[in-house]
Each structure stands twice: as structure tokens, then as C-alpha cells.
Amino acid sequence: MSTISFEVYDFVVFCSTILISLSIGIFYALRGQRQRTTTEFLMADRQMGYAPVAMSLIVTIMSAITVLGVPSTIYLHGTSYWGFSLSYFIFIPLLAHFVMPVLYDLRLTSAYEYLELRFSPRIKLCGTISYVLMMTVYMSVVLYAPALALNAVSGLNVWISVVSLCVVCAIYTTIGGMKAVIWTDVFQACVMFLAQILVLALGVHNLGGFGKVFEIAMENNKIAPIDFNPSPFVTHTFWSLSIGGTFLCLNIFGTNQSAVQRFLCCKTKKDARIMLYLNLPLLHFVMVLGCVIGLIMFAEFRCDNPLAKGAKPDQLLIYYVMHVLKGYTGFAGLFTGCLFAASLSTISSCFNSLATVTLQDLIRPVYNMSDLRATVIAKILVCFYAAVCLCTTLIASQVDSLLNAALSILGVMGGPLLSMFLIGMCCRYVNSSGMFAGFLTSMTCVFLIGYGSLVYRMTHATVPNYPVQIGTDCPADENVSTNATTMASTTVASIAIASTTMASTTVVTNATTVGGSELYSGVYFIFKLSYMWYSGLSVLISFLVSVAVSCCTEKEHVDETTLIPFFRKRSCGRSRKHDNEMTFYTIDTEPNKENLINVKTIGEHDGL
Prior knowledge:
By secondary structure, the chain is mainly α. It is built from 18 helices and seven strands. The termini are far apart.
């Protein structure tokens, strides 16, 4: 596939986006107390308003993988993935009214401190280590994927992109702390949305309007109807996207430190709730942008498919910008800045959250230290994880399949983490032994299914052979091979949000046949399970095992504040005398002792 070099204006626009991000970090390093406390450095003094935090949360989840992956998925398979937005209407109210209030009232710094309060230090250690491993792998994917795509179509050296991204992230995260990360995210969100809106507007203009785009999509069956098939082995159905997607989003937004840290930074619980609800229209806006851009790309390339010329699915959008919109001065630089901004926002959040959980969950419980020293260590940890990120990216560059493998593992490992939080908040009789057994069992089962599916596809699937013409209204071309396999029967692994998250996961549409025979036969049929159900399956397995083991082991006393209010005992809750105050009691976990300690009253100043 041919490449197009940047012009001077492109470099100016691109470099400007990077320099502005860096300058925001320098500004917050020189302002105020210069990040001398862990509360200021890691939690932005817990004084952030809901608007900037909402913008920060959406771009933390929405990485360059999302920007590139959603349009390519729509281009290849139509709008069935659009149904994932149904889950937004379910998970945001659940998160805003049940999960978030519990974590916010506990005034945590690390989300996994909750697991120690509810269960035991052993369970917290499981959660922390799982998160560190997940995000270490995820950072390399977020860093390498856009650099690889940009190199393929523009000739920009991969390692220049990788190193510059990592260094800029480390600098402004280290010197500016959480405030710098959030306000830089706001700027980067503006760049990302502006670039995508311009791609959409210019693309629609070139094709003759929205009506023409949707007319072409309808003629080629790209507007997919809602599939109510109840089978969990069909990737995108109403049930997998709405119900399975709800568990997936709760995993990404509700138990991921990068996301939890956002609503813990808000001034009040009311602000945190508003922030979460602001993400509802933002998430739908992101989905609409990605889906419409995918339809625009299909309308443009339906008679001259770039995939038949060597392009990869995740390079389609960059290919479109570089080749179709190349006549617009500076636009290539702006879109490149969009991709880098998407990566910067996600990676900086990963650096900050990894430093937070490492300090709070692994170092501070072992070593006593002053707050000033802890802040210095947190900054060193940011630099450490930046170095780790570069090393893991080096490995990713050597193994092509690691990109898809890493995102699949993210989805697999996030489900067991979610199960610990949901079961902990809703099931008072599940003890630490039961939760430990449930976590290990669900992690093992879902890991075998998810990673086994990936390995099985890699060893059994055929190499995609894309036709040049994929539209039904294309003129006859004698040069087009009649033996080309249609895209519907090929194996395509395209990266997209399932979030994101941290994320994101992999949208994988699999070939079901190889050489006319069923790919998933016999016991291997389990590998066909939709990735949308991985988190839900993890919660189910963990619940069944943890309840069974808890029934056979000694009962433990529970800190009532770690439960959702509906499941708390009557003695713990809203005071009858004061409607605007709530008293929480921490119960001693020693047998036969229920001493009330740490009585804490939260009033109107906390947003109740």
C-alpha cells in the first residue's frame, strides 16, 4: 500500500497538539503546591468539577483503538455493533446509583482497597495484581497499535511515534499529577472530536450528503436489523449487546482504577453522579461518529477495496484520511494529532492509576512513610511504568498476534475483577475464602475460553482474501478475480471498544467454516462463545463457587458500609433524625465482636 508524506502544515498542526498537552502538565506543576501531597498528585485534591472529569473519563476509555476500530468494524460487518449502545442505558444508572456511592463514601484512593475492607488483604492483592498485569499489557497495545497503523500509511517511523508518546505522557503525568491528566484529557477530547467531526462532514460532502451515504448502505445491506437470537454463540445480538454489554461496561467503568479514580476525584457524590450521566450522551456521540464514518468509508471504497491492496482493517480510516481527504491543508496532521491525543489520554491515565494502586496497595501497607515521600515515590512509579510500557511495546512489535491476544486477555481478566466487586456489594454472606475460590475458578474458566478461542482461531482459520469490489452496485471489472472470497466468510479481527478499556476489548467476527467444514466442532464449540458474555460468565461462575464455598466455611462479619444500601442492616443507614446526614459504622471483623468504630458522618457538603 502506498504512503503519503506529511506536508509542513501537517507537521505544524500535529506538533501543536503534542506541545499543548505538554504545556498543560508544566502549568499544573508550577501552580499551587506543586503536587507535594499524594491527595493532590493522585486525586487532584478531590476537588474536580463534573464537566472536566466527564470529558476525561470518556477519552480515558476511548483510545486510538476505538477511533480506528469502530469504523473498520462497521465497514466490514455493518451496523450490528451499533446495538452495543443499548447497554449504556442500563449500566450508567446501575453505576451511578449503586456501585459509585459505595466506593465514594469510603473515601478510597485505590479501588482495590475496597476488596480489603469487604474481604481480606489476600483478596485485595488478587485484584491489584490482576489490574497491574492487565494494564501493563493494555498500555503496549494502545501505544503500538496507532504507531503501527500510521507507519503503514504515512511512513512515520514506528519508534519515533512510540517513544515520543511515552515520553510526553510520562513528563506531564509526573510533573502535573492528576489535575494535569484531567485537563489535558479535556484538550485531547476536543482534538479527537473535532478531527472526527471533520472527517464525517468532509466525507458526507464528497459523497453528496447523508442521504446518499445511507442509500448506498441500505443497497448493500450494511444497515443491520436487530438480531433477537438468544444464542450466546452469536457475536452481536440484542441480548449479547445489551445484557452482556452491560457487564462488560460495568467492568470497564466500575472496577477499573482509571475510571474509578475519576469519580473519586469529584468534589461531591452528586458531582460524581452527574459526571457519570454526562457520559451517557458522550458515549452515544462517540458511537454515532464511529458508525457513520464506517458507512462513509464503505460508500467511498465499495468498488475499490483497500483491503485487497494490502491494507489492514485497522488502517482503513487512516488510509481514507490520507488518500481521500489529502487535498485539505493540515487535515492529515490534525487527524494524526487526534490519534496521538487518544493514545496520550489513555496512557497517561494508565500511568497515574498504576502508580496509585502500586503505592496504596503494595508499598504503603509494608513501609511507613511521610506523605511527601509517598508523593515522590508515586512520581518515580510513573516513570517506572513508562519504561515498562516501552519494554512491553518492544515485545508487541515482534509478535503480530499479540495485539489481538492482549485485548482478549483484557476482557477475560476484567470479568473476575468485576465479580469481586458485585458479589462483595450485594452478597453479605460470601466470605473471603469463598470469594478467593470464586475468583480463581472464574479466572481459570474464562481465561481458557477466551485465550483458547484466540489460539484456536489462529491455528485453524484461513488467511483473509478480500475482493476488490464489495458493493452490489459496482461496475463490472474483468480484472477482479472471481475466486476472491467474500468478506463475510473470512476471519477478521478488528480492534474496537467494548471499551474501552481500560477498557476496551476486541471485536472479533469469526469465520465459522474452513474449506466447507465447521470451524467450531465438538468440544471446541465453546470457543465460539461471544466475547460480549465473558464478563457476565465470570460473574456467574464466581457467584456460584463463592456462595458454595462460603456455605462450607466459617461466617465472617461484614463492614456494612461496603454493601449497597439496600442490602445493609437497618442499624446502618440514613439517620431518622437527620434527613441530610448519614452515619456509617465500621464493624470489627473478629468473631463475636461487633464494636462500632470510625463513626463518620457525611452531610450535605458531600453532595447527599
